[in-house]
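Run log, item B.
One chain of 740 residues. Sequence copied directly from the ordering sheet:
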Amino acid sequence: MKIKKLMIGTGVLLATSPMFSAYAEDSDVGATENRQIEEVIVTGLRRTESVMRTPAAISALTAEDLRDKGITDIADIQNLVPSLQYGEFLGRRQVAIRGIGEFADAPGVMVSLDGIIQAVGSSAALSQLDLERVEVLRGPQGTLYGRNSVGGAINFISAQPTEEFEAYVKAGFAEYDHTTVEGMISGPVGDRVKVRLAANFLDAGDGWIENLQPGWDDLMQGEKSNMRLIVNAQLAENLDATFTYGRSASEGAWDHWPIIHEHYALGVASGLPSADPRANPSDVRFTEEPRRIYNPGLSDSDREYEMMGLTLDWNIGGVLVKSISAYQDWADEFSNPADGTSIGLFDRLRTAQNKTFTQELNISGSTGNLDWIAGLYYMDDERSSRLFFDFPIPALFPLPVPIQIDAQEPLCDTESKSVFADVTWSVSDDLRLGAGIRRTSEDKVEGHAFVISAQFPDGPVPVFAPCGADLFVQEWDEAENTIRASAEYDLTDTAMAYMTYSEGFKVGGVNASDCNAPWKPETVDAVEIGYKATFADGLTTLRASAFQYDYEDFQVLQVIGVQGVITNAGDAEIQGLEVEVSSLLNASWAVNAGVTLLDSEYGDFLNVDTLRAELGALQNKGNPLSYAPNTSINLSVTYSTELQGGGSLALSLDGSYRSRVFFREFNQKKDSTDPYTIVNLNLNWTSADNLLGLRLFARNVSNEAYVTNIQGSNTTYGRQGTWNMPRQVGLELTRFFGNR
């Protein structure tokens, strides 16, 4: 394929195809014919290469895309990237690609920032600040990225320090009393050192989940802040060092858990004694209305993430040696009434902390027709957590006194080691073959205590501890080999086809609420066939892929009582087709479109639905997987023009459709959200001197309401979940300084 490279800003762009960037001009041709779609070079497969020459399904969002569309979160990325599904669960992010994702901080989609893999997906909030691009890799990445990348990988690439002074200040205001401030300054400090500092702050004064309980505040409000410092130093002519420090913090009522569908008769299934006035269903108020809740108590959260990283790049005679060292600290605390009704059956407190050290060392280069990379990876992850429930009235259990449930996990340590190698051999000018292998071994130790106590006037008294009064400790190890193989062939100068086989695995673990043996790792074998082509002299691109996944020991999350429990579901299969088209219709109009068709199903999987326990074990074979809509469609239309008085104007409309999404394995309509369509509008104005920018936006224009997550509990009133954000209209004003 013929590639035309353009140098724009600090990144290398390619005028051949793709997906979300604007267009390039060549002064040798006319004003209409000279435009081509630009494409960011990606590094998702551990080598610098065009998306159109990469034998994988990869989407890239540039800094311009992120800025012009106001993308600040993974929740926004899903509206632009095929097969990406996003939800939340009490502060935990649930990202799925092609139906495979994460739950309860057990990632299935690997998230990294500048090559630093984040052990807890929920900590990814820091990454959405001052980015050069975002790369989304679809399909298992077990060879190059290792554990917990069965669904794919999301790589956030920070904007790097610049050779000349640059800066900006941005201020914004939007509905729900959202005030934002952001700033960046970048430039050289001496001849060999460059620095970039970026920070932002959000003050959300009004909540968008209405609390119907008198006297208590609405939910989804508070403060969030992020900052990142990058220092790049040239230690020698062939040795660069990059130090990164980042911090993210949020506090406030950022969690909600309303009733989505009532299942039990209120005041009956709860076991409230008849002497208690709250046993009368007429005294229990609740709602299933979107974005409303009865929340009789204080909801609060305090979350902090801190990261320090050091990257060394050493060029030794054309051989590149890279070292990535990082330390991450994630702390998460929240409390809220847990049942979503006016009576406040019980309160919930959760605390969790992760301290993670990672070290990667890789070496790469080219030898004749062979491109290669090999490396070592080490992770030491120490976790602790506590989940505490306080039942202030005698409820849910056959005890005549109030109770407390205390699930503590003070010990959860993982030491992971891996070695990997990957090669691509150019057999001829048109044919390339690739292969890779990774060996991962892990040593784990986990200890927890689960205690139910009765509350007496003199204090709580333990009455039930299924694993004993002392800490229940288990030690075990896991090891897995994952391989990759690919073949790619250039059909013409502007078209290529590829076929890949890849393997991935998600690690096992222990449930902190039972005494069972660890649940098993999940493994997947994936085959993908793809086609990529550029048409009409670079004005239109097409990317298509068909894939087949076969899973063993597929992991699913259930809620038994008030506790989340992970189990292995056995086998599962996913088949799918993705098609992406980008086209510059003329000098002003551009269109990007993508469609994904999925067919997913469980194999033999007997499981008890705790909401219908009287039916016993149910066979779920053939039921669709969670977070796997059959149809996903993304459509983006952009109109841009130069203004007569100087400056430019661009209007973009982005639409995203998802068919029915299930969140539990039993194929019940109440365990799903109805099909929905989200439409976002952005109007961007830039002054003639490029020093001022104004963005007017409307998110979720039609005010569509859909559920991003559902879980069912047999100790509350049925299904509870999380709603998406309603329509929000706002503006941002940016003042740029320095080189533009």
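Observations after the first pass:
- The chain has one domain: 5-405+418-738.
- Helices lie at 63-68, 74-77.
Flagged for discussion on Thursday.
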